[in-house]
From TrEMBL:
This is Glycosyltransferase RgtA/B/C/D-like domain-containing protein. Residues 494-539 are annotated as: Disordered. One of its GO terms (biological process) is response to iron(III) ion. The chain crosses the membrane at residues 86-104, 111-144, 156-173, 185-209, 221-244, 282-301, 313-332, 338-356. It is found in: Cell membrane. Residues 528-539 have a biased composition (Polar residues).
Amino acid sequence: MSLAVRAPALAAATGLPGQPTTARPLSAPTTVLAAVVPASLSLALGMWGIRRENTMWGDEAVTYRLAQRELYQLWETAQQVDLVHALYYAVMHVVFDVFGAGLLSLRLPSVLAMAAAAAGVGLLGLRLAGPRAGVTAGLVFALLPQVQKYAQEGRSYAMVCALIAWASYALVVSSSRRGRWRWTVYGFTMLLACLLQEFAAMALAAHGVTLIVSRLPKSVLRAWSVTAAGVVAGLLPLAIVSAGQSEQVSWIGEPVRPYPWLAAVMVGLVCTRAPLRSQGTVRLTALAVPLLLLPGALLLIVSLVKPIFVDRYVLFSDIGLALLLGAFLEYVHRLPRYSWTVYVAVPVALVALAPLSSSLRTPQSRSNDATTIGAAVRTEGRPGDGLLYLSSQQRMLTAADPDDTRLLVDIALARDPVASNTLAGVEYPAAEIAARMKLFDRIIVVRAAGIHAPEDPREKAKRDTLLHHFRAHTTNEVNGAGVTLYTRNVAPTLRTGPHSWSAERAVSNPRTSEPLPRRAAECVTPGAASSSKGRTASQ
């Protein structure tokens, strides 16, 4: 037999680096190992410190509050705000109905989803580059700091990551086997990911690039095109309606900071310089590189016009990074002098990342801490004090526990979030806010750190009234916010002395029989009172 004839056979038999080989039949034990080992590590890491010292941050507080609303209320809220997360809130509503509302039930779905994602990455690596690359890729994925962080987050990112991992697996299987049902599974999984988070559609584009560079038969490209069109058609109504809620991402400011993503891209591209093993109709690099590079690049391009890049929006890019790192470690293992490397790489990484992993499980790892902020408000305030948020959206910073603000009067709030089907409620007009503020001797002001209140009449009225009629007394700087006690320059009360109606008695304490003065009574709306009772019952 000539060398030319024997070369392909040798490549297939030895797994010659850089050459695609024919995928061998996968045994059941190998498949189970590639899925279970990474999933087990991810699950263990996810359960470690899952309560994060019994705190939650602002975005999780949004999930926590909205998921406790009735489904019809969620639907009405989604028509005004946060439509892009409506499906996730509905899922969490069911979870809370079954298991009760709490930190564990808030975060456990994300832990399980990320474990499923790690299993999917392991199976992808197994199918694309062999058993060792599969197990290693899955373990690397579970260890990535961003993956560890969002595995313990009561938001949709872990679920989206899991769905894209398994959609990618369905894509690889569908490209090499006939059967419409496989493409149906792929399309349904991708659509579900996109409905949970619209940015998942960028993974669909990455999959298209994968198939094009893989030079697959036209029948495969045609099947993917039809499936992708169905996904886009299913997503289109959500995209059109949610475009009217684009002010929700107005908090993303300049400059855009894509440095962690850029570092991941650089590491991934360095891995591609090695002759990575590949098997089957789709090369590992053909899937991993577009998935790692394209979504973030598209967001950066859009950010040239409007800042929109946030690393968690492209969390699923870590699937591509993990595949490349797993294949690279498998390549190093095949080098005679370094065959031991793969057996120590993951344990060494686990130890090296231990300090960072531990820090991710502290309240300081998030941009704010709604639990601590609420506790600071409770500490600073007295029953009947005024409560003011700069701006209204910061109301969610104290949403972790309604008891923190129950005895205070939310001065600017006309309709509470539940009654108004909004995230932060509806506020009074500017003039009325200013007038109501002047009825209080003490006001607790909550201001998010590093975020400027929007320039609108209401916020201007708040700032001007504080400037001209109050003075800052004490400020408690907590993680993500400042809680400041403002006191009147000249108290508006008619009586003075220890028995005067000062701020702490502006509203009667429900636990006492103190009377309610007319001035403060005007600041308590029936809607706010009934809402407070309703929230008490829901706890």
